[in-house]
Predict the structure of Peptidase.
Amino acid sequence: MVARIKEELKMAARDKHMKAIILRINSPGGTVTASDMIYHELEQFKKKTGMKIIACIMDLGASGGYYVAVSADKIIAHPTTVTGSIGVIMLNLSVEGLLQKIGVKDASIKTGEHKDMGSPLKTMTNEERRIFQGVMDTLYERFLTVIAENRKDLALEKLKTLADGRIYTAQQALEHGLIDQIGYLDEAVLLAKKATSLDKARVVIYHRPGIYKNNLYSQLNQGGFGTINLLNIDLKTFVNSGTPSFMYLWAP
């Protein structure tokens, strides 16, 4: 996803006829780093080209999906959009109890007390939990900073009350200042035209050869080309790997 977004932004930057970008977002989020990298690429694109970006959130634009959306100059959400879930989660598990039942014991050798912290083979200690919480708090503050820098009318103190991980409907998000407007993709196009002082404009959807493309609503179900969906990962793989993963993700 990060590579594809960068590729498409390069194409847009080279096109002298391109005046604005519409981001279709349909995602519950993803890893902390992927979310931040896409946000960074969009910010750099705006600085380099001066183009306006309009984010249009479809079914879902939660956590990392919203993180990416705030890079836009305007955020529009469908009337049935679910957004918010501002926060960080670390996916992890412990199978120590199960191993004890079948007579298996962890025999790992380590060079430091906390070298195996987060291992699924043992129960997390209070000290390890404190260390992880410190990392989580830093990543959480990064999330708040990104929102505060881009949503100037949203006071930090109010933002902190909103950023407890809960989700919001489009109407609630509008009332709280998390988005700018409720509407459809057609309204996003109108916003882009207004931002660039254009009376007429042609919408271009980037796609690779052989990929079906018909209109603005094509390929939305699977988050195909032209739609940002950070969750191109398998949560079961994360769980089975046993490796702690820091996520800007709504994963109930």
Q: What stands out?
A: Residues 221-225 have pLDDT under 50 and may be disordered. The chain has nine helices and ten strands.
